[in-house]
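Here's my example:
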Amino acid sequence: MKRSFALGSLVLTVAAWVGCAFLARPLAVGITHRWGPEIVRKGDGKFSDAAVFLQHRIYEGALLLTLTLGLVVVVVTLGSLLARRMPPLWKWIPYSAIGFFGLNLWIKVAAGTCLFWCLFWNGKGTTNNLTQFHIKLLLMVESPAPTKVVLAGSSQVRTQIDHRRLNHQLGTNIFATELHFPGNHSLDFLLLDRKLRGHKADIIVCYLSEIVFFNGAVSPGFPLFFGFREMPEFLRLGGKPQWAPRPFVLGLLGSALPIFWLRDSVEERLFGDQAAGLVPAERRASLASDLHQRAAVWAAGIRADPQSDFCFAAFDKFVAQCRSEGKRVILCSGQMNPILARQIDPALRARMLAFLAQLATKYDNVVLLQEKDLPTQTEADYEDLSHANSAAQIRFTEAIARVLQGLDQPEHRPQSP
């Protein structure tokens, strides 16, 4: 490698950081004075201070530049050293191998910045779920509120609780971030808690219905959050890879190769939301038709089996882990559209409610909201079999706001399990 390239990379890196030190804040404030309200509006409730948001993105830009130039220098240097010992025809091999490793390392580190995920933003409602999840997760820490709340669960929690309305009602001392993932099951709560390590999260609000515990152990998002580090715990809890061999392998492969893990976000950004598997609006509207027939089909797959036993064990572990980390857990005894609920074996709901009551007795960090504590929802309150409409969402959001406002604000002290 020519010395001029290495020297130029060093100079550019130093210049970037010097520029950040002296210009990041003034530049962010200047942009905010001109376009601040528009930036906050486009943030859709994910942040409230445009200047802080922009300043952090500028620093992340300098970090990504430094990371990119540093890895290029290392890859080219190591590649040239190894290529010296190889015939001219095969000199490309060390460059390719080291370059592939460097690209995966770059993605692994860069994925810890919000700016990286912003590159994959494709507009509200048309952005890949993994991209949305990480943007919300990484922006959560930038809120100045002393108490941070996470809204966790499947898409049900998103339609039951409007995080924008909730934050408006909570004021400046509590900030809620919605971190749902479509189709989440009980294991996903435990995987979410692993993701939250290193991020301040004081309270986790969980919306729970029968599909969390009795609809299989492996969710659609499982491969995106499961990896080699999670495998020992999965097996200790009684999980079996044969329950879902393909998602299990995809999770391990994505854990080893970040470029593979990122494939859906890249595909969606390049080719649009339908290529990445997002459901178009007209398709979503058609799903609401013939609910009784669809309820019968869906209810047939909601049953108690060894996988549901695993689901209860995984959720118990999640609550215990939160307790040891000083996090409160609010358990919402949620429901489905009554059209579907009538098709489900009532013994399953009784078992779920008994389990939640047991958790509230067993762990002192649990706040249990029983059915009587939550707004009653009828068939008219649902857009389909599982998602509440806007009117029901307003009532449920207000109920959750009252619960959060009634909690003591001092953090729960970690205790040994």
